[in-house]
Amino acid sequence: MFSQSDFEELHSQTTDGRSLACWISRATAKEAKGVIIVASAFGRCMHHNSSIASYLINNGYDVVRYDSINHVGMSYGEMMNFTMGDALLSANHAVDLAKALFPARTLGFFSTSITSRIAFALAAQRDDIDFLITLSGVVNLQKTLARVFGEDYCALQLHDVPHQVIFEGLSVGAKNFYQDMMSGNWLSLESTRDTIMQLKSPMTCFASSDDDWVEISEVKRIFSELDSRSLSLIELEGCGHDLGENPAMARMVMRDMVKRCYEYCGFKGALIREPSYNMLLKTALQERRIQRKTISAEVTKSTIDYSITK
Amino acid sequence: MTHSSIKLSKTDDVIFSENIFDLSLEQQDMITNELSSDTVTSMLERCPQYEKFYSSFGNLREGVSHCPKIPTTTFKLADIKSSDCGVIEKWCLSSGTSGLQSRIPRNRLTLDRLLGSVRSSLQLLREWHEHELKIIHLGPDNESAGDVWFPFVMGLTELLYPTASVMDSSGAIHLSTAIEEINDALATTNLHVGIIGPPFAFLQLCKFAHQNNIVIKGLDRITTVTGGGWKRLSGDMIPQVQFREMICHYLGLNSVSQVRDAFNQVELNTLIIECEHHRKHVPPWLYVQTLSPSDLQPLGDNQLGLLGYIDSSCDSYPGIIISDDIGIVSRGRCDCGRYGVFMEIVRRVERGFQGGCALALDRPRVTEGEIRFV
């Protein structure tokens, strides 16, 4: 039986010397079926993925979680300086770390929302990611951001972009973010399609039919244009963008995700072992307490700055 | 590309949907009628104990309002569950104020739906993101709450927001710590402060502030939610209007609309919370009615009676119950602008009457450890 509340916290230096915080949870070595990197969604931290990690650990996977640099969480920097480029650098570093810690393991990458746009780029650049699983993955970043913030800042000139915008109570530096998105070609549906065309690994994409931030019609469109047998689209009927608000659907997705991991790692049909409710609850509470202590100072500063939004 | 889909049940679609309280009354009624009828049918198939109980009433008039409902006292004496509900993840216990504790079996789906109910009810307060709210819980943390129901439910807020629980495992409430936490959050952050706990804990907090001349200036930055009742301290009970004014005064709040009450009991899987006009809005997956205490016949809206429920969020046991509470059910448009069904708890049934209620049913004969129906 795995102890799901056990993880090792690592702070690893990126190539430019910034600290990336990771939580490493190990399956028992002889049973490990692979290693899965679980990327935190935008505005979320490692503890928000405690259930996903528990499901994977309980089914024989090593798990590496990380918080992006210049993002909320335990890594270097803060949301005011967030960029897609830094998020990609963080993801790359997490993969390098996982390869070093767990050499010769099948490696999967799990991502949510905007982080999935990062994951597409990551898997297109590297040939050592064996499979990709995305949840509510953003395919049209400009449209998603316009819906999130209620205004299409990406259509503005840089000087018209506000200094910061607020996402779920967190201040995000808008100008840096904007410049990086423009120079990195992250924004359009077409850029995502072109990136996915370069993928070398198979991918499963969970997409919600009632997602206000990601139009499932656009997901279907680019997937159908690619017509690749290595792409699987699983539609979550009647569900919104954030599965954290729908634990019943989240449970079904986690079971299905484990099933996909088994298939990608050559264990098709293996029994899915569900962690108990009490274990999930205990782990979730413990991890929340650990991370909230660390980030409370940063959040306090961030929320106090609220009044200078424009 | 391969394409497949995952779909939830009708019940889950409702429980986990957004803005459920913004539906019209007609839409809510339609949902309630459909789900409660399905729930009764399902429990007749899946719970032999309920099926026997139901059958013992002979020919019944059609409709959920007339379907037999299990007295909650029965759960104190027998384990009742649906036969194909899978693994029971938690046996939840009542506080045992009157001696025996109810034992309710909950599987994962039922517990997930409870969390969905907590999220939905929070829509009646205000929607805070995780980084915008700090909770001070005048009760125990999850570990100390164990299987006792209301503290467990209250403790679930820690999944959503940073929470400081100030009751230790011995049941002592550390009031000075609570005051420190409140004033610290007000002084050093821009966070909103939510204070939750049983009413007697709020009374102690106010007394402590009064005796020690402690000033709290909550203004519009504190919201309080009471729940769980007065328990053994019912002698200290204060009428609701005075109670709200007391909290408002000692916490320095701008308005009594910041003082809310929530209702739940261990046999019920749905949290019911007050809006800013202090009306308890019933979500549409929960059917609620009043019944005549003398013959258990359904009463109409606005008539005082025993409260009965059909809770469609219960998967692992029949949430088809008659409670020990006397109350009123009404419907229409609330002053808060939302349409729906509202319930008001007026008082608990008196102990003598409680027994009378069970006797009045004259159907289940209960022996220790199991339930028998004749």
From TrEMBL, chain A:
Q: Which UniProt keywords apply?
A: Acyltransferase, Luminescence, Transferase
For the keyword Repeat, the answer is: no
| Pfam families, per database record | Acyl_transf_2
* Acyltransferase keyword on record: yes
Check the record and name the InterPro entries matching this protein. AB_hydrolase_fold (IPR029058), LuxD (IPR003157)
The entry's function note states: Acyl transferase is part of the fatty acid reductase system required for aldehyde biosynthesis; it produces fatty acids for the luminescent reaction.
Protein name from the UniProt record: Acyl transferase
TrEMBL record, chain B:
Residues of the Acyl-protein synthetase LuxE domain: 8-362
**Protein name listed in UniProt:** Acyl-protein synthetase LuxE domain-containing protein
Q: Which organism is it from?
A: Spongiibacter thalassae
Query: Which taxonomic lineage does the organism of this UniProt entry have?
Result: Bacteria, Pseudomonadati, Pseudomonadota, Gammaproteobacteria, Cellvibrionales
